[in-house]
Specification:
The complex is a heterodimer of chains A (263) and B (322). Chain A has 263 residues and is α/β, with parallel strands linked by helices. Chain A has a single domain (2-221), classed as 3-Layer(aba) Sandwich (Rossmann fold), CATH 3.40.50. Chain A contains eight helices and 13 strands. The chains are: A alpha/beta (263), B alpha/beta (322). The structure holds flavin-adenine dinucleotide.
């Protein structure tokens, strides 16, 4: 099975406190720790496991700036067969459809049976996978948390639905699936693993190489534009306690006692 | 020109979900003066259609056995067929909305606005909405060119539900349009989530642990605290993804909905998917090292502290106070 996995380099939400720059145009990015989007890492692991079972290859692709190379290389160290970078100034400011349009061009250069994306990334939009499927006119399923390869040209998949129940379906290939976290245990990548793939060449394609018309993606092609970032003024918020560790503990015990929090 | 506005009605057991009435509010705010049409798809829909007709002037019913289980791959061809050019469609940002919305927007040539939490006055065909990024740590204003229509998914709980009972709507039976639908994805079955060793939905005092706990071995700090409090231990999703606790301990939209009196959130950032599983306005105490964590907006009491320092001290104080 030939599998393409789309990955994004994002500020690691577990490592960072996100704050907004003075003019509101962007978040402060100077000191951010970046990593591969959490959902994408599960997608790459799943692709590798499928190939380990039924054979084939895994290609990892990222749209972004040249910085995206580090996450592509990291996913190659996990065991992906090859990497691909889609980089062009003309891609900047793309909306979800723009990103999906760029990825379609990359998908059409190969003969893929399956494309995986993460269910969502740092902006929580959860849109690129479904859009890519529609652009390719392939069937799609979101929030996938189980994949079994059937004998014919189909997969048996599970989708996570409300309350943690699982909806089982059959889907024809080629198809696009967006992956939910928790469906596998992504393998650990050490320095050694990264070193092994350090000199593997990762092709970089621009708009011209991908045959993407000027203005169809990027800021000019975007129907949806982010105007600014802000922190909303919401309600009163919490009563914040202050003091030393011991003082905080005492205050909490008092509050818990009066509110029935100690049984 | 008044926009052609549609809302997609999610329903369970013959009743419209809360989201349906929240979508009505969102539609009226986004498109002042509009008369939204309710789209109801499924099998055996009379109850839901009557309910929606009491809230809106017009209901379109698509009743087919094939639609008994929501399946985005069946629904998009139907919606592409029946929606007029330039339609504005609102969906819940649910597992179905996330499945259906993005691809449908492409097929309709419409803009896509996912997980909308607020609106501002639109200007002509430019819609202006508010979204969140980074798990609610920051918000954004978006402008959207909706001249070719828009598909908009709306976060559950972000808009108050529209009061019902004022309208005498017409139900228009369009089931014929949904005849002979086929899809490249077919529904097989739903496997319910497994029950756990304890039922956190019945617990009055919950200690909830999130990714901020850092390492699996630190989990013991939260367990000891819960034991001292006489509370049950639950968690956010990353703890279940890491297989440190069972799925039956997960609170949130894709986990369980709890209704405790006291909820102690340890190293949980406060994503809407997590908070969506906490009902009944408990005393919510949040401990987080980030003073700007969104959880402090939802909490009643907040403490900015490192869990690894505060938890042992808190457990000890509780033992002393007994
Ligand atoms: C379709 C879908 C369904 C989902 N369903 C659910 C669900 O049911 N339940 C759920 O919980 N999530 C769910 N999620 C995931 C959700 O979006 C968040 O990713 C998740 O809730 C984050 O968990 P968290 O708050 O524990 O981790 P994070 O967001 O990573 O937050 C960790 C927090 O810990 C703090 N912290 C770090 N170290 C320390 C320390 N030493 N001391 C004190 N504080 C510290 C940090 O400041 C941060 O605020 C779902 C997502 C999707 C897409």
């Amino acid at each position: 099975m030939e599998i393409l996995v789309c990955v994004k380099r994002v500020p690691d939400s577990a490592e960072n406190e996100i704050s907004i720059g003075a003019d509101g145009a962007d978040i402060r990015r100077d000191d951010l720790v970046y990593s591969v989007n959490e959902w994408d890492n599960y997608a790459v692991e799943e692709a590798i496991q499928i190939v380990e079972r039924v054979g084939g290859s895994v290609t990892v692709v990222a749209v972004g700036t040249a910085d995206a190379e580090e996450v592509v290389r990291r996913e190659m160290a996990m065991g992906a067969t090859q990497g691909l970078l889609l980089v062009d100034e003309a891609f900047e400011g793309s909306d979800g459809l723009g990103i999906a349009t760029i990825l379609r061009a990359a998908a059409q250069r190969g003969q893929y049976d399956l494309i995986l994306t993460g269910a969502q990334a740092d902006d929580g939009a959860a849109q690129v996978g479904g859009m890519l499927a529609a652009l390719l006119d392939w069937p799609y399923a979101s929030l996938v948390n189980r994949i079994e390869v059937n004998a014919g040209e189909s997969l048996r998949i599970g989708r996570e639905i409300e309350g943690g129940s699982q909806e089982i379906s059959e889907i024809a290939t080629p198809c696009v699936l967006s992956i939910q976290t928790g469906l596998n245990e992504p393998r650990y990548v050490g320095i050694r693993g990264i070193r092994k793939v350090a000199s593997v060449e990762i092709p970089m394609l621009d708009a011209a190489a991908l045959g993407i018309a000027e203005g169809s993606v990027g800021q000019t092609g975007a129907k949806v534009q982010r105007v600014d970032y802000f922190v909303p003024q919401t309600g009163l918020g919490a009563e914040m306690l202050a003091g030393s560790t011991v003082e905080l503990a005492s205050q909490l015990v008092e509050i818990l006692k009066t509110k029935g929090g100690l049984k | 020109m008044v926009a052609k506005v549609f809302i997609f009605v999610a329903h369970t057991d013959g009743k419209a979900d809360d989201t349906a009435f929240e979508l009505v509010t969102a539609a009226k705010r986004l498109f002042p003066g509009c008369a939204p049409v309710a789209l109801v798809t499924g099998s055996g829909l009379d109850g839901v259609c009557q309910e929606m007709a009491a809230a809106l002037g017009e209901v379109w019913k698509f009743d087919q056995a094939a639609l008994a289980h929501p399946n985005a791959e069946l629904l998009w061809p139907l919606l592409v067929k029946v929606l007029p050019a330039g339609a504005m469609l609102l969906l819940p940002h649910s597992s179905l909305g996330m499945d259906l919305g993005p691809g449908l927007s492409v097929r309709l040539g419409a803009a896509y606005l996912p997980d909308v939490v607020g609106t501002e006055a639109s200007e002509g065909t430019t819609l202006r909405v508010i979204r969140q990024e980074f798990n609610g740590q920051v918000s954004t204003h978006l402008h959207c060119d909706a001249s070719g229509g828009a598909v908009i998914t709306v976060r559950s709980g972000a808009f108050p539900p529209e009061a019902t009972g004022s309208a005498v709507g017409q139900v228009s039976d369009r089931s014929g349009d949904a005849e002979g639908l086929t899809a490249r994805r077919t529904f097989v079955e739903v496997i319910p989530a497994e029950a756990g060793d304890i039922d956190i939905t019945r617990e009055e005092v919950l200690v909830a642990v999130g990714r901020g706990i850092g390492d699996q071995e630190n989990l013991a700090l939260a367990e000891e605290l819960a034991l001292a409090m006489g509370a049950a231990l639950c968690c956010s999703r990353p703890i279940v993804d890491a297989k440190w606790l069972a799925k039956s301990r997960q609170v949130g939209t894709s986990g369980l909905t709890v209704q405790p009196k006291v909820y102690l959130a340890l190293g949980i950032s406060g994503s809407f998917q997590h908070l969506g599983g906490i009902k009944g306005s408990p005393l919510l105490v949040a401990i987080n090292k980030n003073p700007n964590a969104p959880i402090f907006q939802a909490a009643s009491v907040g403490v900015v502290a490192d869990l690894l320092e505060l938890l042992p001290a808190l457990t000890e104080k509780i033992h002393q106070s007994r």
